[in-house]
Design the sequence.
């Protein structure tokens, strides 16, 4: 497989789900949808744990010392979480999505195309899996997270398209652009950052993904978006420790 395959599959599932939603309507029962979401939440935790365990990779421990990797992830989560909370990232993202939906929705019921486009674009692109999955794909660490997101988005697009029509299918273009850009960023970082820095970034991202799994399972509504700055902090802490040790 090639870098970017995750986004290609994601776009495909959104289009396929939209077509199914428009043609056959919303046929899945509430119980079935809950069961599917629970299953995806469990798989998300599996992928998250696999990613988080890379904190024990030799490349990272060699660069910063045997006892430092876990402290780096802890520091990144704390510093990134505080920064994200002060910046109110999650609240701003949710507010932006609500503003767009309100701005472009038509109160007269004349057409739901724009409403479907905006609503679906926000759901598919304003979420931690979008950033974590695309970065992981771009870094060459696999597209498992985006494959998981593709299944989620596929089911969601069926439900959206059943009530809002073909505007949901148009949101696939936004998915392509946003995730394509994030994958490109990951690809560039993979060429620029040393392996130890990339490992710290991946382990931190895996821990954030645990938060996504907990949300899917309705165990805890972790404000994962507020923790996204940790992805920037982790490589910086690695570099700081390398400088101190040298």
Sequence:
């Amino acid at each position: 497989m090639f870098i970017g395959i995750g986004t290609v599959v994601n776009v495909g599932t959104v289009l396929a789900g939209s077509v199914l939603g428009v043609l056959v309507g919303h046929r899945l029962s509430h119980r079935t949808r809950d069961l599917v979401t629970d299953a995806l939440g469990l798989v998300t935790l599996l992928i998250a744990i696999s990613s988080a365990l890379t904190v024990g990779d030799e490349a990272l421990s060699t660069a910063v010392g045997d006892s430092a990797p876990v402290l780096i992830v802890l520091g990144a989560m704390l510093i990134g979480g505080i920064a994200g909370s002060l910046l109110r990232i999650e609240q701003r993202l949710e507010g932006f999505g609500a503003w767009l939906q309100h701005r472009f929705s038509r109160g007269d019921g004349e057409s739901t195309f724009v409403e479907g486009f905006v609503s679906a674009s926000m759901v598919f692109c304003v979420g931690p899996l979008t950033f974590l999955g695309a970065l992981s794909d771009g870094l060459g660490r696999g597209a498992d997270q985006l494959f998981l997101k593709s299944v989620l988005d596929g089911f969601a697009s069926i439900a959206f398209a059943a009530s809002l029509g073909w505007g949901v299918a148009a949101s696939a273009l936004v998915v392509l652009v946003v995730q394509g850009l994030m994958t490109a960023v990951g690809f560039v970082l993979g060429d620029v950052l040393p392996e130890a820095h990339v490992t710290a970034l991946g382990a931190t991202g895996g821990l954030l993904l645990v938060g996504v799994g907990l949300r899917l399972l309705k165990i805890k509504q972790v404000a994962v978006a507020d923790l996204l700055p940790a992805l920037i902090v982790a490589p910086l802490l690695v570099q700081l420790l390398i400088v101190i040790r040298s």
About this structure: Residues 5-245 form one domain.
